[in-house]
């Protein structure tokens, strides 16, 4: 099993899919308990949900499950949300705070580092390579990080999660025009709720790869799974009708980002010219 799959496109937008993979190596699978082997915290069918929405988009997809190692966490193990319940680089509990390993089988620091090198590092190396390739061609690269989560997870947040959760780490990971375009489209999506930088402000992926001053823009979209699943529990089946409605809005969002990119390149060039003048 390759850690990462890359589907090459010639446009300005790169889709990151860090949590839709379900592969767990046998030696890790045998250490998981019944809760862990359910793989409940997968971003179920996110790759299918975004498939074919934007011609020319590059897709970088992690094939491994987040229980192997979480591709959207700081490789140094630093918490993304200090003071809040969250999962770690190498999770030992699920989103409800329940242990996922058999007693005594949790990974030690040496095992975590082994997994980081085998899975986490190749994913981000591939993502970085694609962003740099796209940037070299167009003068800009827009990373759209695709996620989903159950709409009700009391351990992680209160109440019911909005349908669209846009994260830019307080506007630090992308140009304001990109943030505004996405927020405006989610706000007017009839029948859906939305929020900017709420419980989910963007994970390590957007914070690490988003460097707008250099022309690398990143934005995270966390979707409530109630928007596209039959049920947010086993077997986590894809709801074709729900997904079809949602895909209309996701297509608008991705198209807007692609349409914005040329103007942002020119804006960056003008700013650089003014700075050198």
Q: Helix proportion of residues, in percent?
A: 25-40%
- Quick one: how many beta strands? 7
Strand content: 5-15%
Number of helices: 7
Can you give the mean pLDDT? 93
Oligomeric composition of the shown chains: single chain
Please tell me what the overall shape is: globular
Largest sheet geometry: 7 strands, mixed
Report what the structure shows.
- The chain has 277 residues and is of the alpha/beta class.
- 35% of the residues lie in helices and 14% in strands.
- The protein has seven helices and seven strands.
- It has a seven-stranded mixed beta sheet, with helices on both faces.
- Helix 5 (176-187) links the parallel strand 5 (164-167) and strand 6 (194-196).
- The longest helix has 37 residues, at 240-276.
- The chain is globular and about 55 Å long.
- Residues 271-277 have low confidence and may be disordered.
Outline:
With 277 residues, this protein is α/β, with parallel strands linked by helices. It has helices spanning 26-29, 34-37, 46-50, 109-138, 176-187, 204-209, 240-276; strands at 4-7, 13-17, 58-62, 141-149, 164-167, 194-196, 216-224. The chain contains 7 helices and 7 strands.
